[in-house]
Amino acid sequence: MVEWTEFERATIQDIFSKMDYESVGHNALARCLVVYPWTQRYFGNFGNLYNAAAIMGNPLVAAHGTVVLHGLDKAVKNMDNIKATYAELSVLHSEKLHVDPDNFRLLADCLTIVVAARLGSGFTPDVQAAFQKFLAVVISALTKQYH
Amino acid sequence: MSLTTKDMSVVKALWGKISSKVDEIGAEALGRMLVVYPQTKTYFSHWADLSPGSAQVKKHGKTIMGAVSDAVSKIDDLPSALSQLSELHASKLRVDPANFKILAHNLIVVVAMLFPADFTPEVHVSLDKFMQNLAWCLAERYR
Hints:
The complex is a heterodimer of chains A (147) and B (143). Chain A has 147 residues and is mostly helical. Chain A contains 9 helices and no strands. Chain A has helices spanning 6-17, 21-35, 52-57, 59-71, 73-77, 82-85, 87-96, 102-119, 125-143. By secondary structure, chain B is mainly alpha-helical. Chain B has helices spanning 5-18, 22-36, 55-73, 78-81, 83-93, 98-114, 121-138. The longest helix of chain B has 19 residues, at 55-73. The chains are: A mainly alpha (147), B mainly alpha (143).
C-alpha cells in the first residue's frame, strides 16, 4: 500500500480543489498531442490535429482533456486505495482503448508542466514531488490490468 | 528526432527571453531534481548541503546552465560542441545517461514556471527535442 505523508495528502487535495479542470485538462492534453505527436494515434476521429494551432483550437481535444482530468478525481478521493479504484479504467485502457502505458507518463509530464505554469512559485520542489508521486501511483494503477 | 531549422530558431529565441534568469533556472532545476528524484543525490555525496538554495547547488546549477547555454549558441553542431563534456561525463563523472532526461524534465518545469506565457506547446516541443539531442551527444563517448 502507498504511504502518504500529511503534507502529500494536503498538497494533492489543495491542488485539485483549486484546479480549473476545463482549462488545465484542455491544455495538458493538447500539449501532449503537440509535444509527443505519436500520441495522436489514439484520436483518429478527432478531426483536425494538423498543427499546434489546430490542436489547441480543437473542441474535441478540449472536451476530452476535461474528461481525463476528472478521471483523476477518483484517485484524489480514494488516495488509500488507488489500485482498486482504477481496476476498471485499467481494463478499459488495455482491452478497449489499447493505449501503450508509456503514454500515461507522457501525459502526466505535460500535466505537471501545465500545473507548474499555473502555480508558479507555489509549485515548490516538495509540491512537485508530491504531485509527481501521486501521478506515478495513478499510472501504476492504470497499468496494473495490462497483460 | 533531429532538430529542424525551426527547432533551432525557436530554442535560440527562447534563450533570448530567458537569458537574464539562466543562473536561477539552473540552480532551481538542479535543486528540484535532488528533491523530486532523490536517487540523483548519489552523485553528490561529497557535498555538505544538498537542499535547494544551498551555495553548492546554486553554483553547480549555474555551471550546468552555462554549458547548456553554450550548446544553444552552437546548436548547429551539437556533437562537436559537446565532445569534451561527453568525454568528461563518460570517463570521469560516469553519470548514468538516464539522469540527463530527469534533469531535462526539471529544467523544462522551471522554464514553464518562470515563463508561462512564452512556454507554448510549440516552444515546449522544440526545447524537449533540443534537450534530447543534447543528452544524446553528452552520452556519445560512453561506450
